[in-house]
Amino acid sequence: MIAVTTFKGKAVALFGLGGSGLATARALVAGGVAVTAWDDNPDSVAKASAEGIPTADLRSIDWSGLSAFVLSPGVPLTHPKPHWTVDLAKAAGVEVIGDVELFVRERRAHAPDCPFIAITGTNGKSTTTALIAHILKSSGRDTQLGGNIGTAILTLEPPKAERYFVIECSSYQIDLAPTLNPSAGILLNLTPDHLDRHGTMQHYADVKERLVAGSKVAVVGVDDSFSALIADRVERAGTKVIRISRRQVLADGLYAEGSRIIRAETGATSEIADLTDIQTLRGSHNTQNAAAAIAACLAVGVSPEQIRAGLKSFPGLKHRMQPVGRRGSVVFVNDSKATNADAAAPALSSYDRIYWIAGGLPKTGGITTLTSYFPRIVKAYLIGEAAAEFAATLGQAVPYEISGTLEQAVAHAAADSALDQGGPSAVMLSPACASFDQYKNFEIRGDAFVGHVRSLQGVAMLIDTESGEK
């Protein structure tokens, strides 16, 4: 645990006692902070109180004596309207921050030079974060992995010299981290997402920009216009920028040439890695992820040889284009982490005959951007709230059924694929939707898919039943 000592002896309020919020409350208490915590869920309040964390309805406290207000990233800061606690904090002139900001302040106070890599972007964050951490660990470095990838940042070991931190940051976390200053900051890409929480695409992009604007070295994907403009602005402000691309040749930066990653600098080019035989980094999207990971690792002192060794041994990311079982020529693929259309595209582009399980809580734009992949889909099995909308988009182009539940979809897709005489195929969960209509998160949805696959007759599982690893 990282005890929050930078507010020792001061009064701090906290709202949100879910996983990361409870971890934050513990870290504040451990650091000697006079914390008052609250949540709209009485069970969460009771759990915190049982641990000895002081709780009180924040409507009833004196805000004038607070040094800070810590807000859970899952609680609205600005859109669709600020949470009532935010209004109270602003009225009292109390700064509103999150757990990533607390980490940043602890690092600055105790180990300001310890390497810190922060990763954001609409798609590819988790794979890039896991890949960087793997490269660092495989090179023998003391590595801490956390943030939005699933491990609360304040549960990690405390900052110290030569301890490397690799932190995935959502836009919500960045919005609550005003002094975020990584050694290397990565912005992979920007497409419309979370607009219900940011209002406009421009505001969403502005929030993401803060991560690289505060970085010592900024690694920015330049294949979309928003990110390309951000790279230019950050560079003009005096930050060193390393541009990356999977679609264009760069005069300076890292770019993909097929499966090869090319580094261009001072007029010369050289191959820094070849992903051809690395099955866990299939697809053009992974050339961008790998290029970003390579650039960040180089920025914090990892040698090209160590990077190449780490790339080759990367085990992949759970719930992301993860082959979990096989029956005959049919592979079952868990891509539950594909929570929007752009995130689903890489998996759909990687197989020629797909029995596609899609749906859930729909996001802006639905699946209209995926029409070029429809010829690869033998049949679609639609679930959740998005089923009717997705059916309308598929229309006459793709045979489909409205399965309703994931269990039904897996059973029907498995039965249909068993009769397929057209060659190797994939039964793929790549929902292009959030999970919240039927599951608490995409991990639980992915685990449910694996469980349903495991229950099928004649399927050889490709992953360990407990860890999910190969």
Automatic annotation (TrEMBL):
Keyword RNA-binding belongs to the record: no
Segments forming domain Mur ligase central: 119-297
Gene3D superfamilies (alphabetical): Mur ligase, C-terminal domain (3.90.190.20), Mur-like, catalytic domain (3.40.1190.10), NAD(P)-binding Rossmann-like Domain (3.40.50.720)
Recorded GO CC terms: cytoplasm
The reaction(s) this protein catalyses: UDP-N-acetyl-alpha-D-muramoyl-L-alanine + D-glutamate + ATP = UDP-N-acetyl-alpha-D-muramoyl-L-alanyl-D-glutamate + ADP + phosphate + H(+)
Role: Cell wall formation. Catalyzes the addition of glutamate to the nucleotide precursor UDP-N-acetylmuramoyl-L-alanine (UMA).
The protein's name: UDP-N-acetylmuramoylalanine--D-glutamate ligase
Source lineage: Bacteria, Pseudomonadati, Pseudomonadota, Alphaproteobacteria, Hyphomicrobiales
